[in-house]
Design goal:
Length: about 100
């Protein structure tokens, strides 16, 4: 995908995702299930220690606020072609925030 098209896709995804989250309450249980099925194994490999949760708790975390967390989840979904719907992304972000980040 060319960069301008990717930027447009991400902008539309963020806009649609914000629209969905404004009307639907994220499902933390579903977010945990998706994290375990689609995220944990990849993150475990990236950590080098076999622990997928370490990516969320490392000292040099790239995630600094809730909006950034949502953007990172959306980026992983797009880049890795996880085929998550916007509401699934919202669920994953809600789970990760509740479990690890605790942003308000």
């Amino acid at each position: 995908m060319k960069l301008p098209l990717l930027k447009l896709f991400l902008a539309l995804s963020a806009l649609f995702g914000a629209h969905v989250s404004a009307y639907a309450t994220p499902d933390v249980v579903n977010g945990k299930k998706i994290d375990q099925q689609k995220c944990y194994t990849c993150h475990a490999k990236k950590s080098g220690f076999g622990n997928g949760d370490m990516i969320y708790t490392r000292g040099d975390s790239k995630v600094k606020d809730l909006q950034n967390l949502k953007s990172m989840v959306a980026m992983c979904n797009t880049e890795l072609r996880l085929d998550l719907f916007p509401e699934d992304e919202a669920d994953v972000a809600a789970f990760l925030n509740k479990q690890f980040y605790k942003f308000k």
